[in-house]
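User: You have something folded?
Assistant:
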Amino acid sequence: MRIRKAVFPVAGMGTRFLPATKASAKEMLPVVDKPLIQYAVQEAISAGAEELIFITGRSKNSIMDHFDKAYELEAELAQRGKDKLLQLVQEILPPGITCIFIRQAEALGLGHAVLCAWPAVGDEDFSVILADDLIDGRLRPCLAQMQRVYQEYGTSVIACERVPKEEISGYGCVDIHPVGPGLGEIRAIVEKPRPEEAPSNLAVVGRYILTPRIFKLLERTPRGKGGEIQLTDAIQAMIQEQTVLAYEFEGTRYDCGSKLGYLKANVEYGLKHPELAEEFRDYLGGLTADWARERPLRTGT
């Protein structure tokens, strides 16, 4: 009961990061020294994924290039004796991992992107990872945590976290029946409800383990909010037929689809980086002290 196939919907335009994403994929934005998509791929592999399925769009060739072999670069690094850098490049993907790239011809939403993966996934259970949601799982990556739940219950699992009620309109929202600590059976799921209409403050985040039944349901799901095929609408249909669990993961999520969340991620990951942490911490400490001294003057003016 291991999830062998992971789907990465990466066709979005990344308009919130323009002009940086005008000609480059938002998933290639770096957090310290690795792009967001690499963190997502490493998380999937840590949970046992062997086939990585990327649902791409225009201007996404940089993702394909990143996971391809760079013969010229590797030869140059080897010639110059830069063995450590050469190892970093060669270890982006471990041996035995297959990448599949499928073009989403029209941007019709997350549900449509997942549906595009059907020919590659087939009739297997699979995972979906949104690289925008960078999750520091602390002791165990988020998807690996979900894999353990999946192995115990043998059904679909969706990652969730509590958010302030006033922010729930930016998420899918679930109503659950608790079945264990941090785990509940989903009774209803709503896409971006108004706070006064939300059934809870339990928000869906970008990690899913799904059964292939979702494809048939997506196939007949009409366009929902924003004129897009919503994955949440298909999941709402699925809970009428199968058990779907909401799992409150252990760890910290950084919303790297927003500028503030992306900046927070860079600071937090920089403070844990083995080569940069100490010097970066000293820099931030000095910066904070300087800012605190200058603040009264700024306030006074």
Remarks:
- The mean pLDDT is 90.
- The radius of gyration is 21 Å.
- Residues 277-300 form the longest helix (24 residues).
